[in-house]
Input
Amino acid sequence: MEKWRAADRLLKFSSRFASAVNWNNSCKSKQGKYFYSVATTVHRNPLFSSISPDDISYFKTILGERGVVQDALALDAANTDWMGKYRGSSKLLLQPKNTEEVSQILKYCNSRCLAVVPQGGNTGLVGGSVPVFDEVIINVGLMRNILSFDKVIVSGVLVCEAGCILENLISFLDDEGFIMPLDLGAKGSCQIGGNVSTNAGGLRLLRYGSLHGSVLGLEAVLANGTVLDMLGTLRKDNTGYDLKHLFIGSEGSLGIVTKVSILTPPKLSSVNIAFLACEDYTSCQKLLLEAKKKLGGILSAFEFLDSDAMSLVLKHLDGVRNPLPPSIHNFYILIETTGSNETFDKENLEAFLLHSVESGLVANGVLAQDINQASSFWHIREVITMHPHFVVSSKSPILLWRVLWNWELTLGVYLKLS
Amino acid sequence: MEKWRAADRLLKFSSRFASAVNWNNSCKSKQGKYFYSVATTVHRNPLFSSISPDDISYFKTILGERGVVQDALALDAANTDWMGKYRGSSKLLLQPKNTEEVSQILKYCNSRCLAVVPQGGNTGLVGGSVPVFDEVIINVGLMRNILSFDKVIVSGVLVCEAGCILENLISFLDDEGFIMPLDLGAKGSCQIGGNVSTNAGGLRLLRYGSLHGSVLGLEAVLANGTVLDMLGTLRKDNTGYDLKHLFIGSEGSLGIVTKVSILTPPKLSSVNIAFLACEDYTSCQKLLLEAKKKLGGILSAFEFLDSDAMSLVLKHLDGVRNPLPPSIHNFYILIETTGSNETFDKENLEAFLLHSVESGLVANGVLAQDINQASSFWHIREVITMHPHFVVSSKSPILLWRVLWNWELTLGVYLKLS
Output
């Protein structure tokens, strides 16, 4: 399809879908426990149909019995977001096995005016993957094939279906001597299609940049069932408009991502991790700039918590211990370097830390001595939002917000907290 | 403007504009000296109006006398592409000084159905910046203000007008201790707006990725004069659709980019360059993968020429000499590392080169001993397409194509030449 026409159609055909989804999300926000703007009641849009027995029968002809889920337990899980903050009342969960099935489902839902909500690993923190009312849930979890990995011409381009679990892709690439350009605490459950649709940043954004840079191509199905093939594998394709970027971060509102082509960097052998404490926010910012300059290309992560976040993690989460002496500091930083020379990388990081302590930027710090210690450092960062108990037990929503803000900061957004 | 509606309007309002520009480009290609598909004659689309004295008067009321150029010499330069391959016959060159003027020009041209062609530094190699017939040329070269550079919160975000010359931005950032994430042979003339509109890759793509990753925001004017403000400075903004990506690489066909916000990395002190020779293409590919693994994060450029390209450069371009002994090799590679530790980086590159020679991947090679030698290595790469004489004098267009293909390869596209 000629690309600008495709864009035009994409936005026309998806408008109803988009408005439905956006409306759902906004509604969800307003129902959210931790939403602080004026609450308003949102009613189900009467323009959307309700599921009829005929719809069920039709979906069974497309997906078979197993692909049409009406079981109460399964529906309950699919209706609830990962933090237990939002709950929908969908009566139907569809599990397509390939792009064609996704296309047939959407085409039919569009013709019947049935609202849908795309769902991947359902690990989102803002309720975008669960229904508000009785939308049809389309979960692409069964689409989990790795289609190709190109190491012959050393491009490191991985092409896979949207339902692939991030951790499985990481393991697959590890065996090939490559890594995924993104990593998340939710890697064990989240799916690459969802990562792309939400433009997940994750722990490697500082080093490998955003998905707009590393996703080379996509296949997506529009609301009317049209399959948009943008599954290129070139690092630079300037033919026509680069429509795939509209789908990166659009939360499924323009269509459902079904296949992903992503550029993966080679795995480097030498990894070093330090956990530091700073007394003020300005020092954290200066430390980041210094790290970028002094650690050059080996800096692979710079993560950030404030003392409230740290206290909450230590108080409420099992198996988390403070690597530093138990005095209270205002801010904590995790620094990771990834390079190709064990000896030099370690010396380089040690010299940087020594200089940072001497210059007063860092109040205290410790360097991981082995892989277990390294994992325990990362564990602190990864579990911040990984434990529902943490959210539920949090006495102060403000603290949670700060955790999330800090989390954004670690993604390189540099939000001004003051 | 609510973003998805903006996208819808963008594509609707720009359709006429887009079709005009695309049609022009395709026409240009078919007229191009080095285009080998079946030639077809393309006639001016009669739907477009011709410029009248009233139009000129109107433009003068917007831009003043100086912004409305009808001088034959200036028009001749603006009608001709940088390689002298394509020539238009525009009678009018407009030079707006700000976004509002661009908006007024486009709104008027749209209402009068006057075809336009946006022009930046006019350094493109495919004639995209010159008219085919009598389109109005809109050159943003007078919009050259640096609007802000944020180093206070260490984000390194530069915001500037589209007409800023790339080399001027590089110099500005150099004084601030930062660098542009892209660098081109044409840096002395090309403009950042044009770089973004053509999604220029350049010499630093390998290290800093594509503009889809480093451009944080844009301001653009649509064909109907609507100003689309997408000039964000956050590294990750998932609110609504990321429309700016439609403008990156769309060659001005959706609108004219007027402002750019771009993420710039800190400048690193240690730079080392080597010029190598390989006997076969597979070795070049293996060498790239090895470089990515062994040089880790300090690898900043990996450039490629084949023997034909090298011979043409040595034969036709002044001040270019072969750094290697004058025996003929099939392929040549330029490798650059950029890091923060002079001693280690040099040792690391030397060790890598030694290993590559021993393993037979590299036939011969030399390491730049000083800044002059480094510049002379880069000169070979940069002048490939910088000298019109080179193109004109090329006896074999096939060779030129191969040069361009190789150029693409160096951009990390890994085109299969076989």
